[in-house]
Amino acid sequence: MMMKSDAPKLLTLGFDLDTWDGYGARVPITTDISLTTNSHILVCGMSGSGKSYYENALFSKLVLADPHGEFYFADYKSEDSFAYLRSCPHYYAYKNTLQALDAVYARLNARQSGEDESSNPITLIWDEYMANVLSLVNEDKKAAAVVMNKVSEILLLGRSLSVRLITTMQRPDAIAFPAGSRLNYGIVVALGAAIKSIYEMLLPDFMEQVKGRVFGQGEGVALLQGSQLHFIKVGTVQDFERMRQICVKALS
Ligand SMILES: Nc1ncnc2c1ncn2[C@@H]1O[C@H](COP(=O)(O)OP(=O)(O)OP(=O)(O)O)[C@@H](O)[C@H]1O
Predict the structure, then answer these.
(1) Between the CA of residue 109 and those of 98, 103, 154, 163, 205, what are the distances in Å?
(2) Distance 107 CA to ligand 1 centre (A)
(3) Residue-wise pLDDT tens for the chain (252 aa)?
(4) What is the ipTM of this complex?
């Protein structure tokens, strides 16, 4: 049997934006990422909103929160933000991103069948998921559907099997998440300009609270478990070298 620990494990998502801007105080916004909660994370925002910067910072914080975690990184765009990860065995760029998905999906299936009795958290971080899916759809619709179904299965079944998905994209259109699986992101972060159509998809019940808000780069909203809305500021990374070392080690 999988041995599961449901002790709370806290991940800091950012800092309360209004307290920071109003009083200069950094009040962390944290969330439980133990097996008792749904800790799939969706990060979205337009180009330049600070997604990649946030992803690096979040990745290193997650490694510290999940010291026994296993990590895979799929980097579809494969540009400079994650270049330092290129030599890591669990880093998969451009056309190889599906290998990361297949590795994680196989682990999900092995845990589901009972063949794999481990329960340490397995996390797949997938940068530019939507762009990757759109490109697959253009190449081969059936193959793209298989990929989207695997992603949906991870979103639907991952929590209890300790398999987590973190995806970033500009617009999280429902088309890339069959069977309504987008609802299974327990943590949703939208950075930068408040795009009404994106908020309507992700925060339909919170439109009044976000009305009139303006967000700059590295600022935005975080919705936790579909019910707690926060306005967050990512803040600056204090020690890039240490952050990179933590991420490299996690993918090695
Ligand atoms: N919180 C932050 N603090 C300081 N600089 C930031 C922050 N967020 C982003 N930046 C800087 O802003 C620029 C754009 O950020 P980033 O590349 O993360 O955006 P992006 O949303 O990933 O854009 P794209 O989708 O085009 O890759 C980068 O130079 C990055 O270093």
Answers:
(1) 16, 10, 10, 10, 34
(2) 32
(3) 444 566 789 999 999 999 999 999 999 999 999 988 999 999 999 999 999 999 999 999 999 999 999 999 999 999 899 999 999 999 999 999 999 999 999 999 999 999 999 999 999 999 999 999 999 999 999 999 999 999 999 999 999 999 999 999 999 999 999 999 999 999 999 999 999 999 999 999 999 999 999 999 999 999 999 999 999 999 999 999 999 999 999 999
(4) 0.98
The structure tokens listed for 165 are 């998905």
pTM of the model: 0.97
Q: Give the start-end residues of each E strand in 100-156.
A: 122-127
Any atom of ligand 1 within 6 Å of the Cβ of 28:
no
Tell the residue nearest (CA) to atom 16 of ligand 1.
50
For 35-251, CATH gives: 3.40.50.300
Binding residues for ATP: 45-52
Q: Is 220 in the pocket of ligand 1 (CB under 6 A)?
A: no
Q: Where are the domains of the chain?
A: 35-251
DSSP-derived letter for residue 26 is -
Centre of ligand 1 from the C-alpha of residue 218, in Å? 7
CA dihedral sign of residues 153, 188, 134, 61: negative
